[in-house]
Design goal:
12 strands, three-stranded antiparallel β-sheet, seven-stranded antiparallel β-sheet, 134 residues, mainly beta
C-alpha cells in the first residue's frame, strides 16, 4: 500500500498534518524483543528473538496551538491505556494497525488568548504498541 498523505488515523479519522511539527513524526517500527540473550565467556552473542515485533510512534505537535485543537488532538489518545491506531510504517512501506498505550503527557500552557482559553506549547506524544501489528 502506498503512502496516502497521513501519518496516523483512529476510527477512520485522520490526525491533521498541519498540527504536526516539522520532523514531528517519528516511528521506530517492528522492534525486536530478546528473551534471555547473553554474551558467553568467549564474547559470542546468543540471542533468542521473540516472534512479536512492536512499534513505537512519536508525534510532536506545532507550538502555540489552541484549546480547540487540543480537544481534537486528545481524541486520538483517549483512552490512554489502550488506543487502536493505524500508522505509517516506513519499514514495511504500509499502513498498519496496532493497539498502543500512551505514557504520561506534560501539558504546558504558554498563555491565555483574548478569549481566556489556553494556548499550548508543543506537545510530545508517544504511542507504544502492546503487541505486533494486528
Amino acid at each position: 500500500m502506498a503512502f496516502e498523505g497521513y501519518y496516523i488515523k483512529k476510527d477512520g479519522n485522520i490526525f491533521p498534518n498541519y498540527i504536526i511539527a516539522k520532523e514531528g513524526y517519528k516511528c521506530t517500527p517492528n522492534q525486536r524483543t530478546d528473551k534471555n540473550s547473553y554474551v558467553d565467556g568467549k564474547g559470542a552473542l546468543h540471542r533468542t528473538v521473540l516472534p512479536v515485533k512492536r512499534s513505537t510512534v512519536k508525534l510532536t505537535t506545532i507550538d502555540e496551538f489552541r484549546y480547540s485543537e487540543m480537544l481534537l488532538i486528545k481524541s486520538f489518545f483517549i483512552p490512554r491505556d489502550v488506543v487502536t491506531l493505524t500508522y505509517w510504517n516506513d519499514e514495511t512501506d504500509a499502513y498498519e494497525t496496532a493497539k498502543f498505550y500512551v505514557p504520561d503527557i506534560e501539558y504546558v500552557h504558554k498563555f491565555l488568548d483574548k478569549n481566556k482559553k489556553p494556548v499550548y506549547k508543543a506537545l510530545e506524544l508517544t504511542f507504544i504498541a502492546y503487541e505486533g501489528d494486528q
